[in-house]
Specification:
By secondary structure, the chain is mainly alpha-helical. It contains 26 helices and 2 strands. It has helices at residues 3-13, 18-23, 35-40, 61-74, 124-127, 133-147, 168-178, 185-188, 191-205, 210-225, 229-245, 259-278, 293-297, 300-304, 331-353, 366-378, 387-390, 397-402, 404-424, 427-436, 444-471, 478-493, 500-518, 525-542, 560-567, 646-650, and strands spanning 555-559, 604-608. It is found in: Nucleus.
Length: 702
């Protein structure tokens, strides 16, 4: 028998009964009742399947392809037929009011299953094994344990409580995303390709539903975890275009309140969050982040004065976790606000990489505008979500685990805020800019202020890492690993500081950042690539594979290409390994340079004795002053020196920089076996044991 006849034979043999189709098992196809239904004492029902015209010229391949098209265009969808316990008279109308029992009707219209007739004859049933109900339930549990609101927030658990009502593409997308957390990851990995095929067939058939776009959202996030930027941005862009086609990006499309509208809002803003952190930053097709400034920066009173002619995006989803008043903004929504500022920082770094830096101290520079927007959005942060109010450092590990869906976006907000300030003031940006632009003279006041800010917020990143490590709170979003890598480059820069204690502190903090990044390697290839980049940068800077305890450099060499890769989060493989992630034909593979320019001495910048920022606070008052605005009078139990003014309290000599930060100090054992530390080690930091002291970094918190 020829292969074509085999294929045609398969088409004839897959007229399964409805019970077998629902259970996703192979049907014996006996009529009037199959042996499987007879054994289980169930009513066996079949649906007629239009097959399309079959001409006499069976050898003509064109006729065979036309038959496949007819199957797609005229095939009967299970959402229009009965399922499980439906009565015969309820089938065939496709109306959700009648096609589901009243007591089990889901919140959205259900879609087809793997045995959908529109997919028969396309080889789908032979490519994968049908997932069992236990596998689907496990994938849902893993999603809510690791991925929910971190950062995507498409649905709540009760909305997908019954897996039998989920579309097949959503099931496959969930399996593909959560496979990295399962022991059967290799067996489940192929579900991503299956989900993509199902999504494309729905688009070709004109049956795209909300769950289809949600599937693209999950696939996009999965691709970003894998470091497959090409495929992730394709899924993300396709999902956003489908949202625009369905007008989900317009406020006017949401007529009222309800679970469906809330779910649509969550989907739209989840896609926006992915766009902010992983979307394309250059090119003619990318959407400038400035277009959303009005939504994120404008206050409620300003919106009330609008005449109604403005086209506004949909409101943020309802989120009252941790809120104490009705007017408080939810923590996930606040994280989205700070994510928008981060997208502008990404644009700023991209401009710097192309030597388009405008003097940052000018009032109309992008640097100044980003700081202005950040301050305006920080104003939206309600007191109930602030660092000193939630007291994350006092929470037990069990409390954090129970309220994970609050603490995950709260940590995302904290990391985003400190990464914004770290990257904006990164000394590498302005060292390189001054080398390429002779007219760019960096004022000493700007150098001093930016060096203080970058060290302050890079230290806060380590502070957060220490708290997370102590609480054994597991994070999954690769953005957290990216922030650790960017903070590590700051601490690498200060490893050659003039102050011996700052030099030691920088080595310890650099080690902590690397260890934290390595904890993401086991499930995120994107972080693995970033970790390899940081390791290579370390080798170039130190002249060896590791920064050991005795390393006391007077100068270091920072690789310019590798620094740009870290700051721009270019999670890409080596040039000879570049591919398009299974998306494009090899003929369209982007052309890249094969030169190993990272090892070229001309592509490094030499740093000799980095300036030590002079940052400290007076601690004689038991720590009260650290939480007061600098303009307020000092409250102290010790007599103040008459010649000590405010500037001296905030900017003390360098020898007092590390005096009041005992939690930062670590023993040399932290450097031992660092390469093998892939999990969260037990922390020995002094958190909670600094009574009577205030630290200079307290001025940088939220």
């Amino acid at each position: 028998m020829t292969s074509r006849e085999n294929a045609r034979g398969r088409l004839r043999s897959h007229e399964a009964c409805l019970n077998c189709r629902r259970k996703k098992i192979r049907c014996p196809a006996e009529k009037p009742a199959c042996s499987s239904c007879v054994r289980l004492n169930q009513t066996c029902l079949y649906t007629s399947v239009p097959r399309g015209s079959r001409g006499a010229q069976s050898d003509d391949r064109l006729a065979f392809l036309e038959e496949k098209v007819n199957l797609i265009l005229s095939g009967t969808r299970p959402s229009q037929s009965i399922r499980s316990d439906q009565l015969p008279e309820a089938k065939g109308n496709g109306n959700p009011e009648t096609s589901y029992p009243t007591e089990r009707r889901p919140s959205i219209e259900p879609t087809g299953t793997t045995k959908d007739q529109m997919f028969l004859g396309l080889g789908y049933e032979d490519q994968i094994s049908h997932p069992s109900s236990s596998a689907i339930a496990k994938a849902i549990d893993l999603y809510f344990e690791y991925c929910h609101r971190q950062p995507i927030w498409c649905f709540e658990r009760e909305e997908i409580a019954d897996p039998s009502y989920l579309s097949e593409e959503l099931v496959c997308s969930l399996l593909a995303l959560t496979s990295r957390f399962s022991r059967d990851r290799d067996h489940l990995r192929h579900y991503g390709d299956s989900a993509r095929s199902l999504i494309m067939l729905r688009m070709a058939n004109g049956t795209v539903e909300l769950e289809t776009i949600e599937s693209l959202c999950l696939l996009s996030y999965s691709s970003f975890l894998d470091g497959n930027i090409h495929l992730g941005r394709f899924h993300l862009g396709l999902a956003l275009h489908l949202c625009r086609s369905a007008t989900l990006d317009l406020e006017s499309s949401y007529g009222g309140e309800g679970p469906i509208n809330e779910r649509k809002k969550r989907l739209y803003w989840s896609l926006q969050c992915l766009e902010q952190y992983y979307g394309q930053q250059n090119g003619y097709l990318c959407v400038p982040s400035e277009l959303m400034r009005t939504f994120f920066v404008t206050s409620q009173s300003d919106r009330a004065t609008q005449d109604g002619t403005e086209i506004n995006p949909p409101p943020l989803p309802r989120d009252d976790l941790g809120c104490t008043k009705f007017s408080d903004t939810g923590i996930w929504s606040l994280a989205a606000h700070f994510g928008w500022v981060w997208s502008r920082v990404r644009r700023y770094v991209s401009e710097c990489a192309r030597n388009r830096l405008k003097e940052p101290w000018r009032h109309d520079s992008m640097y100044s505008m980003i700081l202005s927007d950040l301050t305006e959005i920080e104003n939206k942060l309600s007191q109930c979500h602030r660092y000193d109010s939630v007291k994350f450092y006092e929470r037990t590990a069990e409390q954090l685990k129970i309220n994970r869906k609050y603490w995950t976006p709260w940590l995302k907000l904290q990391f985003t805020y400190h990464s914004i300030m770290t990257v904006l003031n990164h000394p590498f940006l302005y060292i390189v800019a001054s080398q390429y632009n002779e007219n760019l003279a960096i004022p000493n006041t700007f150098w001093r202020r930016s060096s203080e800010l970058v060290l302050l917020h890079a230290t806060w990143v380590v502070r957060l890492i220490d708290m997370i490590t102590e609480k054994k709170f597991r994070l999954i979003d690769p953005f957290f690993g990216h922030v650790a890598a960017m903070a590590a480059t700051v601490h690498l820069y200060y490893c050659c500081a003039a102050d011996a204690r700052l030099k030691y502190k920088s080595k310890v903090d650099f080690t902590k950042c690397r260890r934290f990044l390595k904890s993401f390697v086991s499930f995120s290839p994107a972080c693995h690539i970033l970790d390899q980049t940081l390791d290579k940068m370390t080798r170039i800077a130190s002249g060896s594979e590791n920064i050991d305890y005795d390393w006391e450099p007077e100068k270091i060499h920072l690789s310019i290409p590798l620094m740009w890769d870290v700051l721009q989060v270019n999670c890409k493989p080596k040039p000879h390994e570049v591919s398009t992630g299974g998306l494009l034909h090899p003929s369209l593979t982007p052309t890249v340079s094969t030169e190993e320019e990272e090892d070229n001495p001309a592509s490094t910048v030499e740093v000799i004795v980095a300036i030590s920022p002079n940052v400290t606070v007076n601690t004689a008052d038991g720590g009260l002053a650290a939480h007061m605005p600098p303009t307020m009078p000092r409250v102290s139990s010790a007599p103040a020196s008459p010649d000590m003014d405010l500037a001296e309290k905030l900017l003390a000599p360098a020898d007092s920089l590390m005096t009041n930060t005992p939690w930062l100090w670590a023993d040399p054992s932290q450097f031992v076996d660092m390469e093998n530390s892939l999990g969260y080690p037990d922390s020995e930091s002094g958190l909670g044991n600094i009574d009577g002291f205030s630290t200079w970094w307290d001025f940088g918190n939220l």
